[in-house]
Design goal:
Strand order of the largest sheet: 4-5-6-7-8-9-10-11
Distance between the termini: 19 Å
Number of helices: 10
Order of helices and strands: EEEHHHHEHEHEHEEEHHEHEEE
Shape: globular
Helix content: 25-40%
Number of strands: 13
């Protein structure tokens, strides 16, 4: 089997800011696998928060053996960006070889469109109100927060989008005291979910304080091995393929999380339609979907995913799977 790694850059429609910093482009790795005449592809976004770089992820992929199998991949690479791109590429190639769609091979139901959140990046309150008003027609907005001064931002977004459902993502930026102070106001403003309010590894306080609205584990949840450490602290898990290490583990994590009583959110890094395509399959029927990566781009892949009032649609054969 031949494996190729390409570096691609997609310009963002506007600067995107979270509590850790800002970016104006999405840098991704595109992985292509070929076995004879059959080829598949996948995409990943190396994430510095997890010690990943474009270089070390590419090295992981290029270090794989030529006799790679789909089952063997799960043991050759850890959960993370490298395994994600290869896993998704192998699923794509397997679908082409079988003349079937990936959801058929995986034993999943026929997918349909899913309403997705649209993310407002972190900014000054007046800027976020303008952005919220611009996107007030969207049914679900996700607000990037994570500073001690977020109350004004919350109020501003609600003024700008009075009818939209709202979820917030602190990206590990709050302390327990800040979250406790903000929680009643989150409820007052109709916020439905708060994502990763405290740093992963320093979130035990969530098991000791009252959680008046659902708390979602993002950085604290990578794959099934993460679940035991979430008990009593989180109500929802955010499944991202770049964390799980691909579609294979994402499907298994979804099933186990639901069986253990967690709600499920399916999210993404900022990437192209190729990265979102397999995640749409995992997103079927979950409580919260956040697959808006392509909506944040100024440019996308050919045969990009379709978005409309019904949400994000499953990929065409021409794109993936």
């Amino acid at each position: 089997m031949e494996i190729k790694v390409e570096r691609d850059v997609f310009r963002l429609a506007e600067v995107f800011t979270i509590s850790r910093g800002s970016r104006s482009e999405a840098k991704v790795l595109t992985i292509r696998v070929r076995d004879g005449a059959d080829q598949g592809w996948g995409e990943c976004v190396p994430y510095a928060r997890y010690g990943e770089t474009m270089e070390n992820v590419a090295d992981q992929v290029l270090g794989l053996p030529g006799d790679l199998t789909h089952a063997g991949l799960q043991y050759l690479l850890p959960a993370g960006a490298a395994r994600n791109a290869v896993d998704c590429a192998l699923w794509d190639m397997a679908a082409k070889q079988a003349g079937k769609r990936v959801w058929e091979l995986a034993g999943l139901g026929v997918p349909g469109p899913q309403v997705t959140a649209f993310t407002l990046s972190l900014g000054e309150a007046d800027q976020m109100q303008i952005s919220a008003a611009k996107n007030a027609h969207r049914p679900l907005l996700k607000i990037k927060l994570g500073t001690p001064d977020d109350m004004a931002r919350l109020e501003a977004v609600r003024r700008g989008a009075p009818k939209s459902r709202i979820i917030v993502d602190a990206n590990e930026g709050w302390s327990g005291e800040v979250y406790t102070e903000l929680a009643p106001h989150l409820l007052r403003l109709g916020v439905e979910l708060v994502e990763q309010p405290l740093p992963a590894g320093a979130d035990d306080m969530l098991g000791e304080i009252e959680r008046p609205l659902p708390v979602c584990a993002d950085e604290s949840c990578h794959d099934r091995a993460s679940l035991p450490g979430l008990k009593g602290k989180y109500d929802v898990v955010n499944i991202k393929l770049d964390k799980t290490g691909g579609l294979t583990e994402a499907i298994a994590l979804k099933e186990q999380a639901i069986s253990e009583g967690y709600g499920v959110m399916v999210g993404c890094m900022v990437g192209s339609s190729l990265a979102m395509a397999p995640a749409v399959l995992v997103a079927q029927g979950v409580e919260f979907v956040d697959l808006d990566g392509p909506l944040l781009l100024a440019e996308d892949r050919d045969n990009a995913l379709k978005f409309d009032d019904a949400g994000v649609y499953p990929p065409s054969v021409a794109l993936w799977g």
